[in-house]
Amino acid sequence: MATALIQLVALLAAFAALVAFTGPLTRRLEHWAARRRAVRHPVPQARPLQAVAADLRRLARQVALVPAGSPMVRRRALLAAYDDVLAEAAGMVGVACGLTAVPEGRAREVERLRVNCALRAAGLRVDG
User: Fold this and answer.
1) What mean pLDDT do residues 112-124 have?
2) Angle (deg, nearest 10), helices 49-64 and 72-93
3) 78/60 Cα distance (integer angstroms)
4) What is the pLDDT of residue 128?
C-alpha cells in the first residue's frame, strides 16, 4: 500500500513538473524556430534611392518614346511600372503620393505630374 502511494505521489509530481516546464520549453522552441526562419528567409531591405531614381529616369524615357503603332497594352504596362516606381520614390523622400487612389485618365496624369514636380523640388533628379 505504501509503495502504491509513493508511486502515485511520484506520478503526480512528474505530471506537475511536465505541466510547469511545458510553457518555457515551448516558448524556447518557438524562439529557436523563428531565428532559423529569419536566417533562412531574411526580410528584403529597401532599395537604395539612387537605384529607384535610375529606374524612374529609365521608365520615363521608355514611356516618352513608345513607338507609334505599338500595342496599348505596352504603354499601359510602362505607365503602371512608372507609377509604382514613382510611388516608391515618393515614399522614400517623404512626398505625399495619391497615384493609387486616382482612377486612370486625366486626373491620374495630373497627379503623376504633381508627384514628379514634388520629387524634383525635394532634390531628386527624375528626368533623364
Assistant:
1) 90
2) 150
3) 9
4) 60
